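Contributing new records

If you add data, match the layout below exactly. Sequence lines come first and carry their own label; structure lines follow with theirs. Keep one chain per record. Anything else will be rejected by the validation script.
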Amino acid sequence: MNKNQIIILKNDAVGDLTHSLTAIESIINSHPNHFIIVYLSERSKKFSFLIRGKNIKFKFINYRITFIQKINLFLSLIKEPIDKIYILSPKKFYYYLPVIFKKKKFYAICIDGHDGYKRPANYLRKFLFKYIINDRSIKYKRPSTSKIQSILVGYKNKNQNQPFSFENKNNFLESFLKKKYAYFHIKASIIKKLNWSDRDLSLFFSEILRYHENLFITRDIESNKEKKIYAFKYNLIDFNNSNLVANNSNIYLFDNIEGIDLYNLINNSKKIIAFHGMMTNLGSLNKKKILDLFFCEINKYRDYHNYRNSFYEFKPKYIGYDFIIPSKNIHKTIKKIQYSLKQ
């Protein structure tokens, strides 16, 4: 075993983590004799199981890294024998480290944006051993962030990755996974922007249930807010106490479900219908059938360009992935989803 270490900096949201899994797995497989430390955010902590391999140690820091955490990382680079550092989260602080630790090899994703924006600045890039630019200023179709990161780490395997399948060990969850169901996630912030009422959601869910026996739904976990009681009829499952409140409905609302249980709930569904983000990204790992509700709020041309860029950067590419742009008019949205639901 090589005494030197490799560090992977990936303290991002769960959705962003999924786009880095191929690159991270490639780093791990290419360095079987190194000890690898992966820095994840507190947001991704319960999804660290997605990173597979030997000789791995996880360290968890804030999505917005604190001053103390910066100091601790700085000290670890001084004390520990480290060969390579991969900057897969483009946080500004990370780009100053190569200036100080010139003998260590830094591999990084760099960002180019509108109006000459660069992260990091050109004078800092010269201290990087290797970097790839994610150019968000260009207007034509460009590589996805997953492909860009794979190029950075030298990923050469043209075969498909092994499926991200994990055995369910939760007996309470298993009783529900036996059902045939579609999955939907209620993202409150977008529902609010669309101005969808509970009645609108009920109409939306009724359309899904025309094509699926059951509908399993989840919602954002917000411990500081009182749980909303919806006007439509549903069964409530609370994973904090493994409790089911039955209400003679084909709609099941799962509360407080996280980590591998949430992952298995999503990946055992027949169809995933969700606003673009964490849930669609998790489902795309196993190329599940997905209807991605790609919400756009366009007030000026720059907004259009940003959404278009984001679409190219994060959109999965495989048969079975569909997308629509949801409308504030629920009836228009229902018409848009019908073709995909039939597939």
